[in-house]
């Protein structure tokens, strides 16, 4: 063979190889399909190759003799795959299939990289099963490979702040990401267990309803609106949802989006099995039509308290995400891209939101997270202090019924601050906080009542003045004037009387003097 290789001219050798493979192919009953890692995108392995690799990572450890161990892409787990020139058998509907991993050395003089290696997986099966393999088995491999990949991946938290430092030839995304490692879960959320179960059921039903959504002709997505006062667990619940469903989180900062087109691009770049979050949607943008009109008309008198920020005008100019842009992205044609996505809005003031934004179909489920109930407290006590019952629980139940306290405050009081803090101490601290909250609430109520009373009396006085008719006022004025005149006259007369008396007295004195003389 070496003599043949050396002595045979190049062209003749190529012909020989070509016809040899045709002749052997004629007698060989097996068919090969190759999945190479070379892709059209520079520096990126082909998706089909990676999916096959993930699929085989589940099969190979069971039967192959030589395996390769690597840290999986975006994963902290060790992934085992077939080593070079190893073969593994798979079975599909009773048919045997073989996978072999190959390493090819590309010796082409024109490739630019001498001895460049390419990896590939070769799928071998009998030609009798061609239809089954091409039509069903390959689909099964791709589907299962992707599912395993999603299961094994390290989930990510994305934000819409692009990484400009990447060189131009790398794939620059509008999102940048870090690994998502929030430890929240539903067991630890302080909420009435019944409501919690209802939310969990809703979420699990959604994630298992691919076929149902297809059947009813709706994009596979669901909107959640979480509303309530600050510190009631809205952000925590988003993290718990992501952990429950194994989804990525896209935290969309609307104020950083330039316009509707960029918003659409951002949506297109999101993947399936993800949650798109817009926190504090009421203050993200001036989204309601009415509010826009109002600011235009009465910008001088209404916004007196607002201190204009530096560069706010420029920002206003460049920031053109509109309500309709957002509505379209959530529930328009664009919303169907990706599939299996949750869109979650959070707000402290639900009444400020435009009804179109929160109607069913856009925000399908509205979840109110409110002040801490006794049931919620029990969950927190179990979580923070490992307590299911305690003599102080009765007092706490009474106080929680009488006053409002947010779960964040309860959690803070229940958390031991030093090694000497035990359950008794933490619960006493909570009782103190509850009593203080109660006092403050009572004080506030008193003040409010006082203010109300003052306002009421002010209004009453104003009403009384208004109630007197003009005639009465004029009559009163006339009477007052007459009275003043009379008084003046009386004073005048009095003065004159006094004067006359004085003059008489003087004359009398004079007469007496004359008489004496
Ligand atoms: N229901 C709850 N169960 C358990 N912990 C809670 C709950 N509510 C709040 N907390 C705790 O309080 C802190 C604040 O909660 P979180 O950030 O989820 O509140 P939020 O509702 O998102 O507030 P904001 O409206 O200000 O964003 C968290 O550290 C969390 O651990
Ligand atoms: Mg929050």
Automatic annotation (TrEMBL):
Region (Disordered): 292-316, 441-517
Molecular-function GO terms, alphabetical: ATP binding; ATP hydrolysis activity
A single GO BP: response to stress
Domain AAA+ ATPase: 220-373
SMART domains named among the record's database cross-references: AAA
Top-rank lineage group of the source organism: Eukaryota
Statement: the UniProt record of this protein carries the keyword Nucleotide-binding: yes
Catalytic activity of the protein: ATP + H2O = ADP + phosphate + H(+)
Keywords: ATP-binding, Hydrolase, Magnesium, Nucleotide-binding, Signal
Essential cofactor(s): Mg(2+)
Pfam family, one: AAA
CDD domains recorded: RecA-like_BCS1
PROSITE patterns: AAA (PS00674)
Bias (Basic and acidic residues): 441-463, 473-497, 505-517
Family named by the database record: Belongs to the AAA ATPase family. BCS1 subfamily.
Protein name according to UniProt: AAA-ATPase At3g28580-like
Organism: Juglans regia (English walnut)
């Amino acid at each position: 063979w070496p003599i043949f290789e050396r002595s045979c001219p190049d062209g003749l050798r190529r012909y020989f190889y070509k016809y040899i493979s045709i002749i052997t192919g004629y007698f060989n009953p097996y068919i090969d399909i190759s999945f190479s890692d070379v892709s059209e995108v520079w520096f990126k392995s082909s998706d089909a190759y990676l999916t096959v690799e993930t699929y085989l990572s589940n099969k190979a450890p069971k039967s192959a003799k030589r395996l390769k161990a690597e840290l999986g892409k975006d994963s902290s787990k060790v992934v085992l795959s077939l080593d070079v020139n190893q073969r593994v058998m798979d079975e599909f509907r009773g048919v045997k299939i073989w996978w072999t991993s190959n390493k090819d050395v590309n010796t082409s003089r024109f490739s630019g990289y001498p001895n460049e290696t390419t990896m590939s997986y070769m799928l071998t099966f009998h030609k009798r099963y061609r239809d089954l393999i091409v039509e069903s088995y390959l689909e099964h491999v791709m589907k299962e490979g992707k599912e395993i990949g999603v299961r094994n991946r390290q989930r990510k938290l994305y934000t819409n702040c692009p990484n400009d430092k990447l060189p131009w030839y790398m794939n620059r995304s509008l999102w940048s990401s870090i690994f998502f490692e929030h430890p929240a879960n539903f067991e630890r959320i302080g909420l009435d267990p019944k409501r919690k179960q209802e939310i969990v059921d809703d979420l699990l039903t959604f994630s298992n309803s691919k076929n149902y959504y297809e059947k009813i002709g709706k994009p596979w997505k669901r909107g959640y609106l979480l509303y309530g006062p600050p510190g009631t667990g809205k952000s925590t619940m988003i993290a718990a949802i992501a952990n429950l469903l194994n989804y990525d989180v896209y935290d969309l900062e609307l104020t950083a989006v330039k316009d509707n087109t960029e918003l659409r691009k951002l949506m297109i770049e999101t993947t399936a099995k993800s949650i798109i979050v817009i926190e504090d949607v009421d203050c993200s943008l001036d989204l309601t039509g009415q509010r826009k009109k109002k600011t235009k008309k009465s910008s001088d008198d209404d916004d007196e308290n607002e201190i204009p920020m530096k560069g706010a005008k420029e920002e206003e100019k460049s920031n053109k995400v509109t309500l309709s842009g957002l509505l379209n992205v959530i529930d328009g044609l664009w919303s169907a891209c990706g599939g299996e996505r949750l869109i979650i809005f959070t707000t402290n003031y639900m009444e400020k939101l435009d009804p179109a934004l929160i109607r069913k179909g856009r925000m399908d489920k509205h979840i109110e997270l409110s002040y801490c109930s006794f049931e919620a407290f029990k969950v927190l006590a179990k979580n923070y202090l490992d307590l299911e019952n305690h003599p102080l629980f009765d007092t706490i139940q009474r106080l929680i019924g009488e006053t409002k306290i947010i779960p964040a405050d309860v959690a803070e009081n229940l958390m031991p601050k030093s090694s000497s803090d035990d359950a008794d101490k933490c619960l006493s601290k909570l009782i103190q906080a509850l009593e203080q909250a109660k006092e403050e609430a009572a004080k506030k109520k008193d003040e409010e009542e006082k203010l109300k009373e003052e306002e009421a009396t002010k209004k009453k006085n104003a009403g009384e003045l208004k109630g007197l008719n003009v005639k009465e006022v004029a009559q009163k004025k006339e009477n007052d004037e007459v009275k003043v005149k009379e008084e003046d006259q009386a004073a005048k007369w009095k003065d004159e009387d006094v004067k006359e008396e004085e003059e008489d007295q003087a004359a009398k004195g004079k007469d007496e003097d004359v008489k004496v003389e």
